[in-house]
Every structure is written in C-alpha cells, then in structure tokens.
Amino acid sequence: MGGSALLVRDLSVGYGPVRALRHVSLEVPEQAVVTVLGANGAGKSTLLRAISRTLSFHGGAVTGGTIGLGGRPLDRLPPDRVVAAGVCQVPEGRRVFARMTVADNLRAGALGAPGGREARARALRRVHDLFPVLAERAQQRAGLLSGGEQQMLAVGRALMAAPKVLLLDEPSLGLAPLVADRIAATVREINEQGTSVLLVEQNAALALRLASHAYVLEVGEVTLSGPADELAASDEVRRRYLGVVDEDAAADASQARTTHPTLTRWEA
Ligand SMILES: Nc1ncnc2c1ncn2[C@@H]1O[C@H](COP(=O)(O)OP(=O)(O)OP(=O)(O)O)[C@@H](O)[C@H]1O
Ligand SMILES: [Mg+2]
User: Fold this and answer.
1) pLDDT in tens, 123-157
2) Residues whose CB is under 5 A from ligand 2 (ion)?
3) Which of 165, 203, 143 is nearest to 86 (CA)?
4) Distance CA 78, CA 85 (A)
5) What residues line ligand 1, using a CB cutoff of 6 Å?
6) What is the CATH number of the domain that holds 114?
7) Is 242 among the domain residues?
8) Which ligand is located closest to the Cα atom of residue 21?
9) Per-residue pLDDT tens for 76-115?
10) How many domains does the chain have?
C-alpha cells in the first residue's frame, strides 16, 4: 500500500517553447490540506495537470523533476493509472458531462477506480451524504444544475474513485461567496474523512483558512511557502493576495510626502 504523501521535486514543465513551471518542489503530507496560491497564469493548473499526467492533452510536457505518491513514482503512468494509484483531479471550470445525468456523471467517475461494486456503492453513499442535492437530482441532466451544484458534482465525480489525494483547481471560481463557503466546508469534511487535498486557488482568504501549508507560485516558480497561518500573516501575502492595504505603510507614505518637500521638485 505505502503512504499517501504526494511529493513533487524540482518539477519543470513546458508548453512547446513556453516554460510554465521551473524547479517547483512541494509536498502534500498524508491527510493534509495544502494550497497553492497564485495570480492568473502563474502555473497553478499546469502543476495539477503534471501531477494527474494530463499535460499532454493540453500540449504540455514535463521537462524535469519527479512526482511520487507514498514513495511510488507517478511520472511514467498514464492518467487512468494515476487515478488507480489514488490521485484524482477536479479540473478548472468543473467540466461535468452536461448532457449526461447526474447519476451517469458519478458513474463515470468510478471508471478505472480500484475496488468492485461494493467500493463503488460505498463511494456513492459518501458523495450523497456530502452532497444530498446530487441524490435528489440523480436523474437530471448535469447541464441543468446551478454553478455551485455543478462544482459539487465535479467534486463528487472525483470522489467516486475514492482517491487518497484530491486535486482541486479553483473550486470557488465564479461562485457566490455563500456557495463558495459551502464548498469550502465540504472540502474540510472530505479531508476529515481521510483524503488529503491539494487546493489551487486565487481566493487566498478561503484557501488559507482551509490549508495547513501554503505555497505561492509566481510566473512558474515557488516564491514563498510555509505554514498557512504564517503566510496569512505575512505582509507580502496580505498585500498581494488578501488585498489588505498596509495602513502603517500608507501612513508612512503620506507622512513622507509632507515632510520631504524636495519631492515636489519635478513640478518646476
Ligand atoms: N495549453 C497551453 N498551451 C500553451 N501555453 C499554456 C497552455 N496552458 C497554459 N499555458 C501557459 O502556461 C502558463 C501557466 O498557465 P496556467 O494555466 O497553469 O496558470 P494558472 O495559474 O492556472 O492561471 P489561471 O489562474 O488563469 O487559471 C501561462 O503562461 C499560460 O499562458
Ligand atoms: Mg488555472
């Protein structure tokens, strides 16, 4: 069996000539929630695609580094074997099968998963407990669900494979704050049930509340990492990702303007 710690070492990724990740190292310890923060284009989705081995569908390739789960390399596996090994990704933008029913979407999530009918029934019970609406709407087409419900379905579909590690790509994107909070509460519950989570988010406030560890990705490189509460308290993260205006710095700046009249010399 081995453990379920996910270890990324020195990972570099390119899309043709575009280098999207450079020497990224990161760890998701067993049963942890770890978050990766970063602006648009920082490489967050690329990181998840590299782990789930779906980069080639997007024209990308790993150019260096290693990825392992519980000491087992994932690097050479096809995507379905990564799922079987215990790593499932919820892609950016949900991407449920809109014309299929909710029940069929969930069934699709169990394809390639280890275990037989009993394991599938157990996984479905878990998903219905977490998201009762998916049981109520089982026979409805997925495309008719609200955005929040589609995100629940996307998460539920990934859980059908009973992963050890769940990769979540911006689950709160485009959702109203209350709906995003519900998703966040569910992520916490999923984690408490024993699944570790690698959460990619632009909503830093939400992500830092959920995670024990956080990494900041900037233009393909990890520029900051540490315990989530320490990052949440750092000026850099507060200013750039939490939108907190540093009042002391603002006061210093206005004082500087009044006490240094030489700054007006350009007006002459
Ligand atoms: N399929 C692709 N082909 C070529 N370049 C790509 C492709 N996907 C992403 N990139 C480039 O790789 C870099 C990282 O993109 P990525 O989508 O991983 O960022 P992201 O952090 O997920 O951004 P967002 O917050 O907008 O989702 C960007 O420069 C982007 O333009
Ligand atoms: Mg992305």
Assistant:
1) 999 999 999 999 999 999 999 999 999 999 999 99
2) 44-45, 92
3) 165
4) 11
5) 15, 18, 20, 38, 40-46, 58-59, 92, 202
6) 3.40.50.300
7) no
8) 1
9) 899 999 999 999 999 988 789 999 999 999 999 998 777 7
10) 1
